Amino acid sequence: MSEDIRAEIVAQVREVVARLGQLLAEGDPVVILESMKMEIPVLAEGGGTLTSIAVRAGDVVKEGDLIATVE
Amino acid sequence: MTFVTSPPSLDTDSRQPEVRLARLLDPGSLRHLHQPDASGVQAVRGTIDGAPVLAYCTDANSMAGAMGDHGCRHIVETIDTAVRDGSPVIGLWHSGGARLAEGVTALHGVGQVFAAMIRASGRVPQLSAVLGPAAGGAAYGPALTDIVIMGPDGRLFVTGPDVVRSVTGEHIDMAGLGGGDAHGTKSGVVHVVADSEQDVYARTRRITGLLAAPGVVRPLGPDVDDLRALLPERPQRAYDIKPVIRGILDPAPRFEELQARWAPNIVVGLGRLAGRGVGVIANNPLRKGGCLDSLSAEKASRFVRMCDCHGVPMVVLVDVPGYLPGVDQEWNGVVRRGAKLLHAFAEAVVPRVTVLLRKSYGGAYLAMNSRALGATAVYAWPEAEVAVMGARAAVGILHRKRLAAVAEDHRPELETRLVAEHERVAGGVASAVSLGVVDAIIDPRDTRKVLAAALAAAPEARGDHGNIPL
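The joint structure predicted for all components is written out below.
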């Protein structure tokens, strides 16, 4: 089963911290967003393999935008 | 009047009201309020951890739990009895709504159930456990009560998938339309999504205990846990507030978070501090940076009013960078919904103590149970900031022209100097103490002790109002 990780706030992508193909546990950070003058890690909700990353550092994401997919 | 009956045998249908009620209540405590009949409802008395409660259950095996006039009268009598006794009342729901064959008679009965719930609102805790589909009138029943707990087979909707499809053309099943995922993450209708029917009973029992058995504050020794260590070193880094909440509350019973996956940038829930049942309201920096927005403000408002009307003191943990800016927010009524939080806190008469952990800016600072709104006490950890906005942002506005006038390579140096000056004059928790908006700066290791003392010192009180589903 795949899990889409989506942005929940308008933000700039500060850093992509997970690598494509990486095995993630629940709660592992995938990217770090910057919004409200804060650095907000976006975490994997369930565990799995990171099969796609839809953003790069510097991108601006809106609420609901796809960030990554975990399978 | 009660009727003693023999306990149900283990091989009976697990959907029988008798069986469901027996699983909710303390063993052997169940007493019928009326003889079993064809009304589709069973009402009982019993105890939860020894404390008296009233409960009713719709009969899933009788017309899919549909409610007729007779069954509705049982529910109304149960709720009225709970109010007379001052006991919590719990509804177990598995019902297709009003009995079609009875027509307007049944509809009127369902309306009288609503009216009874609203009469009881704020007077005794009302909990609803949704065990199966609860449609139409059976959906609004739970929604009028204080807490809605949903099991894996629970479904809540006004109109089911067939009607949705014929009217709007949307294809969706019952679980997708009104199951735990929909109401736990999208609508906010359900407060607790349980893992199993057994878990529904366990959570219902724990929450009933927290609301109905307030307990008294016991003196605490000095704390050993350094709660400050749970926060990141860098102030702009987000973190999860929940370990901090668990560190402040007693280890048992565990913190019962409500609406955990809906508007998660604010955390609300019930637990105990030094033995006293408390409600916790806390910003969660891990989600949306902990900002307040229209949904989180509304979520917190209803919880604050629920605590107030049931006499539950509140602990408010603040780390808020502000209100979330945006067109969506403004058009979604962040002003209207944010105003609810101001109103809820300022109106509350229960003891309510605030701890500023880190950031506390602007309108969001005021909304999080500030001194201006009548907080019983406001404490701050040493690194906390209280300001209209962050110092760097403030300098950018106040000194925009001056910063623009200097050469680009000199700008960071000037900015740093202006920020330090601004912090000295306008910000910092020390100036908040001298203004009287913060009572004291406390060592994070003393947080539990200080909160317990503040709650123990404040007179018990209870707001005289209902708990309208905001």
